[in-house]
Design a protein that fits this description.
This protein is α/β, with parallel strands linked by helices. The chain contains nine helices and nine strands.
Length: 291
């Protein structure tokens, strides 16, 4: 059961899209002076949020030029062009396009994050402000935008489910059921040997002793079987769909391990007690027949 739980917990592990390039993707009249400042502000925000594999505008421009693309500013902020830039930077690269325009004394700022392996944008942001007030206007929205993009950088690992049925399910399926036992005494029967070792004990008294022991161990088997089933039910209830065809558990790792240990231990005790109860029942039946 424990390997199965560890496999399920592994579903939550993820890889990350990288690199993340912050690139000026337009060159509009009047915005030439402020666009680099906005690009640097976006880059610094990603850095503060702990995003790894960052490329600033100059570094990304060099990489793109080496890949054969002359000037990212020729994209004029279009998504199709951003996708092309991301593909040139790598199979899992992300380009954050900075498109800034100026109309009179008003700035129009458009940010869009596009990945090389996904059609939908990882995030967009549109802000309009006065020429001198863009920093305050972007202070809160840019944090929300960066965090949305950061969340979209994760790539969930696809882990195939275990090929075999979990041991706990097998134990529950094969659990002993109540059966009427009517064995025929044999000379080589070990229970018959027990009778010979106690010749002075009345068969009827011994039968009731074995019957009482069988009932007690059967009760233990039922109690531990219920506890084992409850532990597994708690784990099953925590299974969640990760959205890409895989499943994981919402429980912390230590809680999931504790449930696995409890389920396995209780199932083992239940099965052992059921087998002992069956043996005692057979012995009691034999003594009743010999009376």
């Amino acid at each position: 059961m424990l390997p199965f739980l560890l496999m399920q917990l592994a579903l939550g592990q993820a890889e990350v899209r990288s690199p993340v390039a912050v690139v000026m993707t337009s060159k509009r009249p009047g915005a030439e002076a402020v666009a680099p400042k906005i690009a640097q502000r976006v880059f610094d925000s990603f850095k503060r949020e702990g995003v790894k594999g960052l490329l600033d505008d100059q570094g990304a421009a060099r990489e793109l030029k080496d890949a054969g693309f002359s000037d990212p500013k020729s994209c004029q902020g279009t998504k199709a062009c951003l996708s092309k830039l991301a593909i040139l930077l790598g199979p899992r690269a992300v380009v954050v396009g900075i498109d800034v325009g100026k109309i009179g004394k008003t700035l129009a700022i458009h940010l869009e994050a596009v990945s090389a392996d996904k059609e939908e944008s990882l995030g967009t942001l549109d802000v309009s402000s006065s020429l001198s007030g863009w920093s305050d206007a972007m202070s809160a929205p840019i944090v929300v935008f960066v965090r949305d993009v950061k969340a979209g950088l994760e790539l969930k690992k696809k882990v195939d489910p275990p090929p075999t049925t979990p041991p706990l399910e097998v134990a529950r399926t094969d659990a002993p059921t109540k059966t009427q036992l009517t064995p025929t005494p044999r000379e080589d029967d070990p229970v018959s040997g027990m009778v010979e070792q106690q010749p002075g004990k009345p068969p009827r008294v011994a039968a009731w002793v074995f019957a009482g022991g069988a009932a007690a161990t059967a009760g233990v088997a039922v109690a531990f079987g219920v506890m084992s089933g409850n532990a597994k039910a708690q784990y099953d209830a925590s299974i969640v769909d990760l959205g890409d065809g895989t499943r994981g558990t919402s429980l912390p790792e230590d809680q999931a391990r504790a449930l696995a240990n409890a389920a396995n231990t209780d199932a083992t005790v239940a099965l052992t007690s059921a087998l002992v109860s069956a043996g005692l029942t057979a012995a009691a039946t034999l003594f009743f027949l010999k009376d």
